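Quarterly update from the structural biology core.
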Amino acid sequence: MIFYDCATAPSPRRARMFIAEKGLSVETREVSLAKGEQLSPEFLAIHPGATVPVLATESGLILSENIAIATYLEEMHPEPPLLGTTAEEKALIQMWNARIEHQLGLAIAEALRNGNPHMKGRALPGPDNFEQIPALAKRGLERATLFFDRLDAHLADRDYIAADGFSFADITGFVFVDFARVIKLRVDDTRPDLKRWYDRIAARPSASL
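Predicted structure, tokenized:
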């Protein structure tokens, strides 16, 4: 397998943590988004969507979405289970993973890509260029802040987001909550249950990757 990574981006970090939690050693190739290497002819030949992460399997299959990479690795390496073992766990993990992606991950992306002058003309990831919409930056920050509040409330009587133990939903949540610092939204004592959960996940070895 070959894993196409970018050390500074949140999406590949999710896959990195998943791979580490599985105890796998995978050949890794860095794709610098800062240098625009995702738009190079060499990388576009691998993944025309021009995003990372990408996992090339031993059979030559190209997987370019986190949920696809996680599903493949879970099937190939079931232990420890990170996508659930019962129907209820699997459903809750998928539900929370999607909820975090849409309500937090996309909100951060809205705020960052539409508010950062360095991303002028690159308001969306991928091979196509889009101009920034400043109003989306404001909305993105508001949406992310609201989700921080909702996640804090959800975690009031829980150690993990979706199951009794650590799961892919916690990986997705941790990475995006941590990445929210780029829009000046941080975990602190004003959201004690979110902070308790965040500190618990941050202590895992995979969180340092």
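The longest strand covers residues 2-5.
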